Amino acid sequence: MLKLGGWLGGGKHHRQGHTQSLNALDELAQIEDAMAAVTYIMADDVDAAEAHLSKGSSPFHQLGKGVVTFMRATLGFEQDIMREASQTLSDAENAAYEHQRRANRTPHSYQSPIYPPGTEYAVCLAQAQLMSAIVGVLNESLTEAIKSFYKLRKAYLTLEGVMDAEKKFLQSRSTSSLASTASASSTRPASRNSARSLTAPKIPAPEGASAATSRTSLTKVNPDGKPTSASDAVEEKKAKKDDDDFDFVDADEERQGAETPMEYMGHLIVPAEQGESVQLDNSNRDVRVKSSSASNLPSEETQLDTSVPSAIEDFEQLALTDTIKPGEDISLYSDHPVDVFIISGANFCFGILLLIISLVPPAFATLLKIVGFKGDRDRGTKMLWQATKFHNIHGAMGGLVLFGYYNGLHAFCDIIPSSGEGSYPMTRCKALLAEMRKRHPKSHLWLLEEARMLGSEKELEKAVEFIANTGESPLKQLEALSWFERSLNTMYMHDYEDTTAAFLKCITLNNWSHGLYYFICGASYVELYRRTKSADLELAKQHADKAVGYFKQVAPNTGKKKFMARQLPFDVFVNRKIAKWEARAKEWDCDFIDAIGVSPLEEMIYFWNGYKRMRNEHLEVSLQNLAWSEGPENPHWSKEALDEKGILAVLRAAALRNSGETVKAKEILQTEIISQDKALFKGLIRDAWTAPCARYEMAANLWREADTEGRPEEHLDLLEQCKVWLVEVAGWESYDLDARIGMKVTAAKGTLRRFGIEC
């Protein structure tokens, strides 16, 4: 087995801060100080967090500084902050590595009953590697992005080492200890007071131990099988040489003829001659519950669970228990701050790692080969839920990731169960949100998530009103994110002037996607122009001038930002659209505003999956906007190419699907797109995305029909048809915004696998 130091990576590591090993008391103080300082982030007071963290130089303080810059980087996507975050997290990695290496040689370091010495630094390192990898993927450099995927692998290996230590601890517990763990009460091996006295925690004793009256006899077993009394044993001592480089040694995994005992045989310090052993006779042991005055003991009639779970099941009892239960303690096994840091950090890191990898779209499948393992969405979310139980920064960040997944990515996808496993856990999310707002009442993060939750419930007006009344956040990146959420909701509500105002506000708060924001502003005024064109020519001209003015701002504000050395997908999309309209205006000899085809605002709504958040009245407005293109007020519809008519078909089908009209939606897709030659949709400035998206929409319609009553397993024929369309989309060549559709396809495949459909 590799040493933990080997998991953490070799190579040259620069020393950061103080590298002198901490004893148990100093380490405890450093963890508590750093964890207290970093909680200022959850009050939107990043400056205070940085000020407090700068007073310390331990790996925990270095990691705290990394968390601060990571939050800023991921909330704002600003390159200068990302570079700062990369450097800060690199320093945290080096410091954690150095302290972990020294911890194995320090006799006064904290001795956990669960983990080997230095595991807390391993968790520091894994968290720094994970955050650094996420920042690197968002970086403009392809090289940095590839390095980041390799860092994900290193973080995985580090966390795997932590999990192995937990499995060994759990495998070492007795059957009676397992049974007592399943009962209502539990005995903890350590407390804060014992930690302060530098007393190493011990493995929990069985809860019924104090009530047991045991009549046991010790016997020594000779090689010939004849027992002798333990009092006649001869003690033999052997000199042992200390090895400073010793970390772990694997226990023998295969022992011929050895069986796992079904009851505890004792761990006794009794001398025995060489080649002999001491055997515990449990034949006369019994447990007399009534003889004990201890509280919370089971009755004599209670049948305790004496089954031996697998290592995975055991680990779930340690780390995957139900969350947010009133009065429930944060851990079943230890309340020592170091163990709490390890358990909460490992759950958060491993959870987000498994979740991220599970969501990678097919377009990036090659990069997953660098990682070398597959994601697991279910296990990842379970671990994140467990992390939320802890009242520290890991719990808060675990909650943020869960909300980002359920209110963001989960809400973005279509082919997911409407009920049961894998569905949106509305009740649980509301309970978590209430808990987080109680823990961190000053944070705008939870207010933003509450607005997102309202949007997921199709309460768009309430979401906009709620976020407008929350006040301004002192954290600039969070304020920008709040305005972006508000902008999307106003767009889904078809409030065109407020949509423009909101996106213009976003331009003043960040420097990420200004070209896209100007495009949406122009698209909003296209709708206003079309609504007033036949009723008020003067007002229509004003709207047209504003629309053209915003569209002219698109090109100068795109191409500056890159993702993995490539232009941002939306930058490519909006520039191609404008080039297409300019070519049509010249070909048709008309004004630019009249050369614009099917509603560009509805296209934006589709790619953000806004139709899923709309109520029927909102969907009806979208259908009216789409109908304008083939109506009498548009004199150019007869000139439109197949790809433009394909846009109308896909958008109309998506709106109909979300209103429940799947039969009509499928008919439109079959007639207008799928029955046509794929090659006819291709071209330099054509909208080739309509052909693969039509196939995805067919899959989404079939899923909706199968899940109408919440029992898709009863409609396997429809699920098989759904699979066929998804496989075709997954194998499609590159097209506009294919990564966005690819994420939907990845999520859809995961859903089908729940019901036995492999794809």
Give structural notes:
The protein has 759 residues and is mostly helical. Among the domains are: 4-174 and 329-408, no CATH class; 641-759, no CATH class. It has 30 helices and seven strands. It has a three-stranded antiparallel beta sheet with strand order 3-2-4, with no helix packed on it. Strands 1-5 form a two-stranded antiparallel ribbon. A hairpin with a 5-residue loop joins strand 2 and strand 3 (227-229). Helix 11 packs parallel to helix 14 (393-412) and helix 26 (642-658) packs antiparallel against helix 27 (662-674). The radius of gyration is 31 Å and the shape is globular. The two termini are 35 Å apart.
Secondary-structure blueprint:
Layout: H1 4-7, H2 24-38, H3 46-53, H4 59-76, H5 79-103, H6 119-137, H7 142-171, H8 175-182, H9 192-196, E1 212-213, E2 217-221, E3 227-229, E4 277-281, E5 286-287, H10 311-319, H11 337-358, H12 365-371, H13 377-387, H14 393-412, H15 426-439, H16 444-456, H17 460-468, H18 476-492, H19 496-509, H20 514-532, H21 537-552, E6 562-563, E7 566-567, H22 569-588, H23 592-595, H24 600-607, H25 616-627, H26 642-658, H27 662-674, H28 690-706, H29 716-730, H30 738-754
Antiparallel strand pairs: 1-5, 2-3, 2-4, 6-7
Helix pairs in contact: 2-3, 2-4, 3-4, 4-5, 4-6, 4-18, 5-6, 6-7, 6-11, 7-10, 7-11, 7-12, 11-13, 11-14, 13-14, 14-15, 14-16, 15-16, 16-17, 16-18, 17-18, 18-19, 19-20, 20-21, 25-26, 26-27, 26-28, 27-28, 28-29, 29-30
Region (Disordered): 173-249
Subunit structure: Interacts with lipid droplet proteins.
Keywords: Membrane, Transmembrane, Transmembrane helix
